[in-house]
């Protein structure tokens, strides 16, 4: 009890008599930190895509993620569909939903003097609507995914890999890989990159910016849904949760360089790593302070994010 | 300004000053106290966020710093609560000092990076205060209750907040038309060009940032007494920071009128919606309001009054 | 800019008139007002409290009302925001001129409203959450029953004393959320070392949201802690449980703070949520009159097997207030207060006598989740199920 | 082949082109010269559909193209090499070419076309996996032209192709343009380099403040004393 509230460096307990204990603990923290970081990365990639391609800051991105998690939850509860499979069911809904949102809400705002600012206010409104819509249709109760593999883990040496986290991280990695391949290898993906590097030239060669942006937005929403499901494997969620996720998304994206998919993914991992390391070395109550403090330092040293903003 | 408008405005201000003494339900006094506080916050924010284009997402933290400074001063020196009127000034000064420390390095960052660093700053402040027991830690701080009747106390603080609001508005208005303001706007347009035009950009930005932290600090001092119990989750809440930005942008962030319109209209609309609709419906409509506003007036409410058509760029 | 100011002033005046007049019409029923976090972070708890309030009103109106007058609730949504909670409390008091103020949730909002209630001299029966707010010298605030962090584990500690020393856990891992409720839960941990001889090996606080529970559990496992205190809410509690299961960490007992008493715990976690100990200040299986009927009502309306704890809290606070009013035979707040401080009230949570601070004698029940149901374990007189101890290993 | 008549274009409240008329026959190389701000780029952007005209008509082989989207116009074969090249700087040479052949028609013939283009610009072939932003100025201009070539142009419009290039490099680019014309490509060349442009082109138009002030055969315009004094400083 004496320790309550006082800041003291953590001592390695002598009773256990095993020096490796802390080493394992550090690595364990880093492993699970990295897995969670991968999910932040995926959430960030979609956000980054929209920001880079159309200068829209989509505050509702995390709300779409929560929506995805809820849809998957509904499928799981009502039909016993595993959330991983459930994603493929809801993917078209999210994709087309995103396209509709772009066409009727985002596109008309493109005429604003300051798209960044106007889109922020607009999507903030969207986020509130989505949050309370979920709350109305469902209820504000917190939810978690419960599948056959929740609360199970496999061990590699002394390190535990919780299945839900692992599945979430794998989903995130797969999602990021798909997005990366889409942008780098497919015709439409290349057109998307072209249109955000040189919108005018892109139009000259027949690229329809509105259609391309619509697809990009649909993809971003779909990836948010996937990220939301992955988050649902790690954290419980309620309609309000998106506020919190958004802050992490914001961090990851800016750290990784806006529009830089690879950078965003790496930044996600980095934040996971920072989190894991500080969990291992400092009192838990200081973890977030230290993570955010380190981010401030990183930003001050590298004022334009860690990675070059390229596409 | 047309003369009849001028007199109308004068009447409104005079009416506001008289309000607490016409024995209205105290709720109105309290509600307007909070609304005025938001006007102060959004108005100060415009100095750096609107004029200079540096979107600060951590401005709520200065409110918290002010609130905690006052609470600590009052509790430590056992001052009579009426001294809060004096102690609010150190609160503003404390916020300004923190702004100087944070702003010096942070203002080297541009665009989203500045937004992020201020967001992180607000976050760290909330968590750090929660973790430090000498600041009350997770328990928060209680302020000694006023020895006077509630209505009277609310009335006094209302008047002070009203004065603070007027001062803030006048200062921001003055800045807008000054050389200083022109420098800020030049920075927003193009910082490199501003530099070549002999604007000492680092100094101008920092001064604006410090000034924009001072008023929220003072407001925080008053706010602490309004609540009489403060907690990091209440006064350092990141939602306040975001609400400030939205209020300013909702009204239109590039002039001193925007935040007044934004803060007042958003607060009152929210209040009205909650009064007449079921909770979630009220929130849904509140959200739709932002969507519809931006669809029809992409540049904020004041663009409607100015009749300015957007899309020139 | 020109027409703007005039428009603004118009809107302002219109808003004032609307807000002022719209809601304070009929004076006949007894008005009970205040705010609850119906949206936002704490929405899920508040929803059940509001249902408890409304059901109480329904019941009493059927019986002919309070002091012969029907009762009516005015519940504002404070959006889980303490500032709004304060404004709405004042709105209820000064605009709606409510006859009675109802209690709110959660910790920080209730803490901010308590001074308001005191200033306006309105009796305020709420959960409080922690001793600190009851030691500020407020005379109109009551915890009837309170949800006191400091008392939360009283039942557990008492029961643990009945376990032979050799069977008791030896080493405790304590993880506590860093907020008012966490801090007051932590307060009660003193008893562990002093009275029970359980050594606290790990004592960590964390800020919500908990980023990751894996390292916590890993550490507890490696340091061979055989009892785990997870002093948190639902979200972090779930993560901790899941990590404990995944890492196959098998302490003799897991004690969870506030999260495990809400319905979502058993509903969402299923089997994984079993055997967790916690406390409560009221329970749907207590023998005090009224509980049975409430359970039936909740079963019929919302299809739950028994009433959720926050439904009970809402109902119970109103019971306390009702008895105060009926005892004082008046709506005079000071009379109600004085009556409550000098008489015993009878509620679904038990019979209370309030002390100077507005609190009953320290008490709390020990609960354990067994087969997806929250069962009462201690005191023996209310036991509904034998405790499962030590906790069976994870399957 | 292309007949522009009475074209009027506004930028906001400013009139950028007024009552402009010109025509282009198949296989011709026509140049539009004029000083900075005369409206040359506006003209090309209007023809490309980026800017829509207030009034007037643009007929391409008996079809009205004024008011069509850039996508449709590009599909018809009116292709522009924009001023300042506007390459997709973060993408490789090959990807830039793929984007030139974005539309389905061009895409189907991409393989064959890209071989032809590489034959013409062997240097691009060597660097096809290099990121466009890292090419030299001359190579970038070649890539810009190549990117337009794979879009299957029937009229190739070039906006200041020699901008920012060394004289030697500029000469090489003009050589390429002459070759293209000789192979039968219809070319509309917009340039401030009046001498070179007029010498190359079969016909020329002089644009001043949004109006055509003179037109005629390239050689004839070169000899025109007014033009000589205004644009050639002689």
Largest sheet of chain D: 6 strands, mixed
Given the C-alpha coordinates, what overall shape of chain C results? globular
Query: How would a crystallographer describe the biggest sheet of chain C?
Result: 7 strands, mixed
Assembly type: heterotetramer
Low-pLDDT regions of chain C: 21-27
Nearest-angstrom radius of gyration of chain C? 22 Å
The chain-level structural class of chain D is alpha/beta
As residue ranges, the low-confidence spans of chain D are none
What is the mean predicted local confidence, pLDDT of chain D?
91
Question: Which fold name is given in CATH as the topology of the largest domain in chain C?
Answer: Rossmann fold
Give the overall pLDDT of chain C as a whole number: 88
The gyration radius over C-alpha positions of chain D equals 17 Å
User: How much beta of chain D, percentage-wise?
Assistant: 25-35%
Beta content of chain C comes to: 15-25%
By DSSP, the count of extended strands of chain C is 14
Pair of chains with the largest interface and how many residues each contributes: B-C, 50 and 51 residues
Q: Topology of this structure?
A:
The complex is a heterotetramer of chains A (311), B (313), C (395) and D (234).
Chain A: H1 20-54, H2 61-79, H3 83-109, H4 115-137, E1 153-156, E2 159-162, H5 163-185, H6 187-197, H7 199-204, H8 209-234, H9 242-256, H10 261-281, H11 287-301
Antiparallel strand pairs in A: 1-2
Helix pairs in contact in A: 1-5, 1-8, 1-9, 1-10, 2-3, 2-4, 2-8, 2-9, 3-8, 5-6, 5-8, 6-8, 9-10, 10-11
Chain C: H1 2-22, E1 30-36, H2 43-62, E2 71-77, H3 82-95, E3 100-101, H4 107-119, E4 124-125, H5 131-134, E5 141-142, H6 154-161, E6 171-177, H7 180-187, H8 190-196, E7 199-206, H9 214-222, E8 227-231, H10 234-246, E9 253-256, H11 263-269, E10 276-280, H12 291-302, H13 309-328, H14 333-342, E11 344-347, E12 350-353, E13 365-370, E14 373-378
Parallel strand pairs in C: 1-2, 1-3, 4-5, 6-7, 6-8, 8-9, 9-10
Antiparallel strand pairs in C: 10-13, 11-12, 13-14
Chain D: E1 2-11, E2 14-24, E3 29-34, H1 40-48, E4 55-60, E5 63-64, H2 70-76, E6 78-81, H3 93-100, H4 104-108, H5 110-120, H6 122-126, H7 137-149, E7 155-159, H8 167-182, E8 186-191, H9 194-200, E9 203-208, E10 211-217, H10 218-223, H11 225-231
Parallel strand pairs in D: 3-8, 3-9, 6-7, 7-8
Antiparallel strand pairs in D: 1-2, 1-4, 4-5, 9-10
Helix pairs in contact in D: 3-7
């Amino acid at each position: 009890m004496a320790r309550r509230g006082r800041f003291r460096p953590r001592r390695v307990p002598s009773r256990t008599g095993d020096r490796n204990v802390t080493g394992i603990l550090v690595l364990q923290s880093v492993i699970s930190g990295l897995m969670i970081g991968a999910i932040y990365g995926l959430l960030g990639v979609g956000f980054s895509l929209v920001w880079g391609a159309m200068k829209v800051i989509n505050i509702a991105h995390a709300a779409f993620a929560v929506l995805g998690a809820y849809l998957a939850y509904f499928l799981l509860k009502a039909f016993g569909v595993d959330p991983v499979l459930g994603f493929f069911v809801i993917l078209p809904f999210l994709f087309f939903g995103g396209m509709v949102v772009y066409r009727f809400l985002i596109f008309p705002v493109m005429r604003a003097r300051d798209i960044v600012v106007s889109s922020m206010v607009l999507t903030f409104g969207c986020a509130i609507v989505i949050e309370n819509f979920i709350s109305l249709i469902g209820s504000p109760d917190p939810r978690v995914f419960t599948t056959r593999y929740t609360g199970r883990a496999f061990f590699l040496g002394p390190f535990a890999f919780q299945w839900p986290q692992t599945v979430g991280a794998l989903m995130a990695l797969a999602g990021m890989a798909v997005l990366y391949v889409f942008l780098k290898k497919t015709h439409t993906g290349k057109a998307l990159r072209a249109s955000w590097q040189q919108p005018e030239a892109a139009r000259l060669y027949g690229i329809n910016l509105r259609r391309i942006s619509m697809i990009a937005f649909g993809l971003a929403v779909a990836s948010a849904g996937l990220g939301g499901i992955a988050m649902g494997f790690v954290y419980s969620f309620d309609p309000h949760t998106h506020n919190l996720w958004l802050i992490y998304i914001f961090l990851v994206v800016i750290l990784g360089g806006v529009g830089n998919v690879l950078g965003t993914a790496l930044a996600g991992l980095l934040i996971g790593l920072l989190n894991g390391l500080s969990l291992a070395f400092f009192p838990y109550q200081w973890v977030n302070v230290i993570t955010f403090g380190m981010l401030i330092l990183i930003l001050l040293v590298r004022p334009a994010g860690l990675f070059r903003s390229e596409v | 300004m047309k003369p009849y408008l001028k007199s109308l405005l004068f009447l409104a201000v005079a009416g506001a000053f008289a309000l607490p003494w016409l024995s209205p339900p105290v709720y109105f006094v309290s509600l307007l106290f909070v609304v005025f506080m938001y006007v102060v916050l959004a108005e100060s924010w415009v100095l750096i966020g609107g004029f200079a284009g540096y979107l600060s997402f951590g401005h709520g933290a200065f409110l918290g710093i002010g609130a905690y400074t006052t609470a600590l001063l009052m509790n430590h020196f056992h001052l009579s609560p009426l001294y809060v009127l004096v102690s609010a000034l150190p609160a503003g000064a404390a916020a300004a000092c923190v702004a100087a420390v944070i702003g010096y390095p942070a203002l080297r960052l541009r665009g989203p990076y500045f937004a992020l660093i201020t967001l992180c700053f607000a976050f760290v402040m909330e968590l750090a205060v929660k973790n430090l027991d000498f600041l009350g830690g997770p328990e928060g701080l209680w302020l000694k209750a006023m020895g006077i009747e509630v209505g009277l106390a609310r009335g006094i603080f209302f008047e002070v907040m009203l004065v603070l609001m007027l001062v803030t508005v006048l200062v921001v208005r003055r800045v807008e038309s000054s050389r200083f303001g022109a420098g800020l706007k030049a920075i927003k347009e193009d910082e490199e060009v501003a530099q070549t035009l002999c604007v000492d950009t680092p100094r101008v930005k920092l001064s604006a940032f410090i000034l924009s932290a001072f008023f929220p600090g003072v407001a925080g001092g008053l706010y602490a007494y309004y609540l009489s119990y403060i907690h990091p989750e209440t006064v350092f809440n990141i939602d306040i920071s975001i609400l400030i930005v939205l209020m300013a942008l909702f009204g239109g962030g590039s002039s001193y009128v925007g935040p007044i319109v934004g803060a007042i209209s958003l607060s009152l609309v929210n209040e009205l919606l909650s009064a007449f609709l079921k909770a979630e419906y009220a929130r849904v409509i509140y959200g739709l309001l932002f969507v519809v506003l931006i669809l029809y007036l992409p540049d904020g409410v004041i663009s409607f009054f100015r009749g300015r058509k957007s899309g020139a760029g | 800019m020109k027409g703007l100011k005039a428009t603004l002033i118009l809107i302002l005046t219109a808003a004032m008139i609307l807000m002022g007049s719209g809601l304070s019409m009929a004076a006949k029923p007894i008005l009970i007002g205040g705010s609850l976090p119906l949206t936002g972070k704490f929405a899920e708890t508040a929803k059940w409290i509001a249902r408890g309030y409304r059901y109480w009103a329904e019941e009493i109106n059927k019986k002919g009302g309070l002091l012969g007058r029907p009762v009516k609730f005015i519940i504002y949504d404070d959006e889980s925001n303490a500032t709004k909670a304060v404004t709405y409390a004042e709105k209820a008091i000064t605009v709606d001129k409510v006859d009675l103020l109802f209690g709110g949730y959660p910790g920080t909002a209730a803490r901010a409203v308590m001074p308001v209630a005191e200033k306006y001299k309105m009796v305020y029966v709420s959960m409080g959450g922690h001793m600190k707010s009851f030691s500020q010298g407020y005379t109109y605030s009551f915890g009837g029953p309170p949800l006191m962090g400091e008392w939360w584990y009283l039942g557990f500690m008492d029961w643990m004393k009945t376990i032979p020393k050799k069977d008791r856990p030896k080493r405790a891992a304590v993880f506590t959320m860093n907020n008012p409720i966490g801090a007051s839960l932590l307060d009660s941990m003193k008893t562990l070392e002093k009275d029970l001889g359980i050594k606290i090996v790990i004592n960590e606080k964390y800020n919500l949201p908990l980023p990751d529970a894996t390292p916590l559990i890993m550490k507890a496992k490696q340091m061979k802690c055989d009892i785990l205190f997870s002093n948190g809410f639902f979200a972090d509690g779930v993560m901790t449980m899941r990590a404990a299961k995944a890492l196959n960490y098998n302490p003799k007992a897991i004690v969870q703070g506030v999260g495990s008493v809400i319905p979502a715990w058993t509903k969402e976690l299923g089997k994984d949520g079993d055997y967790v100990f916690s406390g409560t200040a009221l329970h749907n299986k207590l023998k005090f009159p009224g509980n049975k009927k409430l359970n039936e009502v909740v079963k019929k309306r919302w299809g739950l097997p028994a009433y959720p704890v926050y439904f009970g809290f809402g109902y119970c606070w109103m019971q306390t207030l009702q008895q105060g009013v009926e005892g004082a035979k008046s709506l005079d707040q000071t009379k109600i207060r004085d009556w409550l401080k000098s008489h015993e009230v009878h509620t679904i949570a038990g019979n209370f006598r309030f002390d100077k601070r507005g609190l009953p004698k320290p008490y709390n029940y020990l609960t354990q989740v067994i087969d997806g149901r929250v069962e009462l374990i201690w005191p023996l007189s209310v036991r509904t199920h034998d405790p499962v101890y030590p906790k069976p290993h994870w399957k | 082949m292309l007949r522009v008549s009475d074209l009027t274009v506004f930028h906001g409240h400013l009139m950028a082109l007024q009552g402009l008329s010109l025509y282009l026959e198949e296989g011709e190389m026509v140049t539009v010269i004029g000083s900075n701000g005369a409206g040359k780029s506006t003209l090309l952007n209007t023809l490309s559909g980026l800017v829509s005209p207030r009034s007037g008509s643009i007929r391409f082989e008996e079809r009205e193209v004024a008011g069509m989207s850039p996508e449709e116009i590009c599909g018809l074969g009116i292709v522009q090499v924009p001023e300042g090249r506007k390459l997709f700087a973060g993408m490789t040479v090959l990807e830039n070419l793929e984007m030139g052949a974005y539309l389905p028609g061009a895409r189907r013939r991409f393989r064959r076309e890209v071989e032809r283009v590489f034959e013409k610009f062997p240097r691009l072939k060597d660097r096809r996996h290099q990121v466009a932003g890292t090419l030299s100025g001359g190579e970038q201009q070649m890539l810009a032209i190549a990117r337009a070539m794979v879009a299957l142009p029937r009229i190739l419009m070039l906006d200041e192709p020699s901008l920012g290039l060394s004289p030697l490099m500029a000469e090489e680019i003009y050589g390429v343009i002459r070759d293209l014309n000789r192979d039968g490509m219809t070319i509309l060349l917009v340039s401030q380099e009046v001498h070179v442009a007029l010498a190359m082109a079969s016909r020329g138009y002089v644009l001043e403040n949004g109006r055509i002030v003179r037109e005629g055969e390239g050689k004839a315009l070169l000899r025109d004393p007014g033009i000589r004094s205004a644009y050639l400083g002689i």
